Amino acid sequence: MEKKDIDWGNLGFGYIKTDYRYVSNFKDGKWDDGEITTDDKVVLNECAGVLQYAQTVFEGLKAYTTEDGRIVTFRPDLNAERINQSAARLEIPTLPEGKFIDAVEKTVKANAAYVPPYGSGATLYVRPYIFGSNPVIGVKPADEYQFRVLVTPVGPYFKGGAKPIVIKVSDFDRAAPHGTGDIKAGLNYAMSLHAIVTAHAEGFAENMYLDSATRTKVEETGGANFLFVTKDGKVVTPKSKSILPSITRRSLIYVAKEYLGLEAEEREITLEEVADMAECGLCGTAAVISPVGKINDHGKEICFPSGMEEMGPVTKKLYDTLTGIQMGRIEAPEGWVHEIKI
Ligand SMILES: *Cc1c(COP(=O)(O)O)cnc(C)c1O
Fold first, then answer.
1. Which terminal residue of the chain has fewer beta carbons within 10 Å of its beta carbon, N or C?
2. CB 338: neighbour CB atoms within 10 A?
3. What confidence score (pLDDT) does residue 157 get?
4. For ligand 1, which residues put their CB under 6 angstroms from it?
5. In 9-134, which ranges are E strands?
6. Which pTM was predicted?
7. How far is Cα 34 from Cα 67, in angstroms, rounded to an integer?
């Protein structure tokens, strides 16, 4: 198969239209079989549920080429599980067993020419999403839905190495204690946009959100979970019912314990104790780990000993091991690397 003529090493993180996408419709209480189409346009009634009441959920994963030339995705079973948890919370019909992975496989396969070659640093970002599609004006769930999967090639997250970023403690809240912070829904991003634009204008790369009930505990950023390394080399990540259960973070905890022999735990982490941490990073599919060098808490700076030049040593080991597993250079735990046969 001939690859597209794309300058893989210089791609950014933006949408590029590819040749194919997947569409399946939910009507009269059931999902149809779904199909691959070339049509990138979604035509909806002006009163569609998604447009009026934001009834939509999504996922994000990557397809990429391993060292030995296979096209794979990373733990898509967890994305399948999570989109159904998100859907259930917004009264969106869940996907039957196998439908999510089948849709991802079909879409990636159809767009194999867009899967970047091994070593380019680029990947094919896969975006599955479901939205309410029929007219809804009185507040209630839609009766009809569309499940789509689009893909777009994206560049290496870090061009020229991962430089630590500076973030701020936000005065905005991301999620309420019994709200929707633990699901992957567009609505959680809509309300984060003003906060991130404000943070960027002030010179910060990201916001650290605190728990909205007490504003003393670390939650997450707009789109990534925190990971800390204590001064005695333990990996800790915040435990909270209002953060999104990141697959990258869960994988890193496993890697810390099973591959690196480190102690690792999920527990409540107060903002106060962050000043005593040795390393800090943000984890998510896009970057795997973005190192954080400094946190600004209302003018008071928390500077991590790992500094502003490079990732901390433990963060680096975690990053190298997980990316090694993903790329096929290090043996993966059973079921982590899912091959898509072209
Ligand atoms: C998607 C997402 C993450 C990262 O999850 P991964 O499964 O690791 O990609 C973290 N926080 C939020 C709010 C997210 O939407």
1. N
2. 18
3. 77
4. 60, 184, 220, 223-225, 244, 246-249, 283-285
5. 21-27, 30-31, 35-37, 56-58, 61-65, 71-74, 123-132
6. 0.97
7. 32
